[in-house]
Amino acid sequence: MSVAWKTVWEILSFPYEHLLLINGILSIIIIFFQRKNPSSVWTWLLLLYFIPVAGFVFYLLIGGDMHKRRMFRTKEVEDHIHGAIHSQAARIRTRELQAEFPHLKKYSDLIYYNLETTGSILTENNRIRIFTDGNEKFNALLDDIRRAEKFIHLQYYIIKNDVLFERIKEALIERAEAGVEVRILCDGMGGRFVSKECWRRLRACGIRTAVFFPPLLGPLNLRINYRNHRKIVVIDGRAAYVGGFNVGKEYIGLDERFGYWRDTHLRIEGEAVANLQLRFILDWNYAAKENLFTEEKYFEPPCEKIGSSGIQIISSGPDSELQNVRNNYLRLINKAERSIYIQTPYFIPDEAIYSALVVASYSGVDVNVMIPCKPDHPFVYWATYSYIGDLVMAGAKCYTYDKGFLHAKGLIVDGEVFCYGTANMDIRSFKLNFEVNAIVYDEKEAEKMTDSFQKDLEACTQITKDLYSSRGLGVRIKEQVSRLLSPLL
Prior knowledge:
Blueprint: H1 3-17, H2 19-32, H3 38-50, H4 52-63, H5 75-93, H6 96-100, H7 108-118, E1 126-133, H8 134-146, E2 151-156, H9 163-177, E3 181-187, H10 196-204, E4 208-212, E5 232-235, E6 239-243, E7 260-270, H11 272-288, E8 310-316, H12 324-335, E9 339-343, E10 347-348, H13 351-362, E11 366-372, H14 378-393, E12 397-401, E13 404-406, E14 410-413, E15 417-421, E16 425-426, H15 427-432, E17 435-441, H16 443-456, E18 460-462, H17 465-469, H18 473-484
Parallel strand pairs: 2-3, 3-4, 7-13, 9-11, 10-16, 11-12
Antiparallel strand pairs: 1-7, 2-5, 5-6, 6-7, 8-17, 9-14, 12-18, 14-15, 15-17
Helix pairs in contact: 2-3, 3-4, 5-7, 7-12, 12-13, 14-18
């Protein structure tokens, strides 16, 4: 063996020969420094023990814990936000807000929580439109894009360079050539479907683009576990979109694998648009290294009365100290007196969410959970089915959506308030993904959401106790294995 090959062999063999030491050091890091919850710690330790080499690589890719620090700064708007938050918080403490808006009294503690933890100001001058069909949503979006006069800010987790993006690109290029500012932000993982040549063409047309957590080593992304799952569009500060639809042909029902795509998206007009604009700009400034907070045109309030829907925009991510979207779900579940309606493609709750739903069901609250009938991620699906089975045994009504793929994300409580957006009802959305949801305090709109859920039941199969108990051995094994891995999913 030559000296060169001998040196290479010694370098490659060193990690293997010292595998126990490396595993021991990594175990100490996981237990004492990463501050993971116990179930996640034990899952990683078992993985390192049984498959030490692959487990070590796997941990390097997706196991590291980001520092709980503020990655995004709002110094330029901090004084304004700080004043508005404290003014509204004072009104809640003195019950002025409840007196002015009696229908908000029941949820004043949740409104206060969001003010204190995320700076989410409650706005009342809003009008919303609910979309459950991809073609309707994207047709409305294209109409708004074509009417844009000042700027278009577009952010999606997934963008695929297919027939849908072609339609959007044409509209964006036309507006950019007319002098409208256009920005596109996508996630480093979800944007891998678009070629560099496509991005170059868009930039050549005057469109500014940025990637959140781009791959650092070619296709290898060491931050793959942290995904910007947000979907936000803001146009001229007058209209904004938030919800579950990404940009790809499957979202308009053109992928045979999934069939009809059932999702939920909101179009918002009014004061809440500025809060979605703030969320977009925080992400954009971080990814593009451009400071948009100095531009007042992005935060001009509406001049007229638009509507009466109360809205708070909440966001969370691995940079946050608290799991804000999860905590809102938990608080809403605990406040339910009559009914809870949940739609989610992935149902892997933590112990608190799961226990709250079980307690609600046993307490006489009408708990309803709807999931897809087909998996797009098998391990996640079978873990989901396992938790659903437990809820069924606790008396909850659980359903699989059979018409196509269910991707809607949110819950409705007592026909009074709903929280929908980008966050799934799973540990990944609670802790690892960057998410954004809208809480809407409006009984009329909540009734529309409830009616939509009830209509979806026509295309569902209820998972009864007998049906769940009759599942085969193979399904039971897949459930148990997937549930064991659920802290990593």
